[in-house]
Here is the input.
Amino acid sequence: MTWDEVEKTSKKRDANLLVFRTDDTLQRVEKFGDLFAPMNELKQKLPKKWEL
Here is the structure.
């Protein structure tokens, strides 16, 4: 889901607006692309105190 959808849902106070069926999800991926793709590109490191 997009942040705009989350914001609209919050204003309407209806969490059901964020429920998608499987076929809806496939159409959304075609429309919006992979919204998680940037997560695969973002490289971060934990602070030294949290390293294993």
Remarks:
- The chain has one domain: 3-43.
